[in-house]
Specification:
By secondary structure, this protein is α/β, with parallel strands linked by helices. The protein is 45% helix and 16% strand. It contains 9 helices and 8 strands. The strands form 2 sheets. It has a 5-stranded parallel beta sheet, with helices on both faces. Strands 3-4-5 form a 3-stranded antiparallel beta sheet, with helices on one face. Strand 3 (76-81) and strand 4 (84-89) form a beta hairpin. The longest helix has 17 residues, at 178-194. It is globular and about 50 Å long.
């Protein structure tokens, strides 16, 4: 049973979760936010929205300057709504277009564009300023909110992450060979490490959690334990958070 911390409205933490593709960041971040009654911030959704917009405008994904110009010319708004992170560009909602093969392929390239990241990072920082947030991505602990009170590097073995992705595709009715998914995951890891800005790194004060043999509930429990150690203000169930 987890002990409840005293309610302190001024002590709402910023929880930053980084990690490679398929580590379970989105699922865990959303669940931790729900448990703590915090706001879930999916930075990847913002990059996906930019990628979809670039495809709509037929902007070459390897033209980083053009992508940066595009990002600087639009108004981006994002917020959580009942566990769903919703994104609007110039008033048009892109949420329903963020998941799928086209967005998956495009965001892998666009996310490496420094001019785009320079536009989105200040927006993301602004969303986290008030605290009481769980933010996940690739460079949250190193670039976006390096002064977050709780920092986690969530990972899993390459094979396990590929298996999760393969199962996810199957659940969506998308047929894929596991070997292909594994190769794509390995290539994605390489790109995340090769970025010249905002690359995937484990910062020194981030706590490593390997989710290979852990359930979502176990990972969430580990993160909540970290929050309790930081004297987090819990505002949910009066008799504990996880069974």
């Amino acid at each position: 049973m987890h002990r409840l911390c005293p309610i302190n409205a001024e002590k709402r933490l910023r929880i930053a979760i980084d990690g490679p593709a398929g580590a379970g960041k989105s699922t865990v971040a959303a669940e931790v936010a729900r448990i703590l009654n915090y706001t879930y911030l999916d930075t990847g959704a913002m990059y996906r929205a930019m990628a979809v917009l670039a495809l709509d405008k037929e902007i070459p994904l390897d033209d980083f300057q053009a992508l940066g110009k595009m990002a600087s010319s639009v108004t981006i708004k994002a917020r959580e709504d009942n566990g769903v992170f919703r994104v609007w560009i110039d008033g048009e909602e892109f949420t329903h277009r963020l998941r799928g093969p086209k967005a998956d392929g495009a965001v892998k390239i666009l996310a490496m564009a420094k001019p785009v990241r320079e536009i989105l990072v200040p927006i993301q920082r602004g969303l986290a300023d008030c605290g009481g947030v769980v933010m996940e991505g690739r460079d949250i602990t190193s670039v976006v909110i390096p002064h977050a009170e709780v920092k986690v590097f969530l990972t899993a073995s390459l094979e396990e992450r590929a298996l999760r992705r393969w199962r996810e595709l199957g659940n969506k009715g998308i047929t894929a060979e596991f070997g292909e998914v594994l190769s794509e995951m390995e290539a994605r890891d390489a790109k995340d490490l090769e970025r010249d800005w905002g690359k995937l790194v484990k910062v020194d004060d981030a706590v490593l959690i390997d989710s290979t043999n852990m359930s979502v509930a176990q990972v969430c429990r580990s993160i909540i334990d970290l929050c309790e150690a930081r004297h987090c203000c819990f505002t949910n169930s009066p008799d504990g958070f996880l069974a």
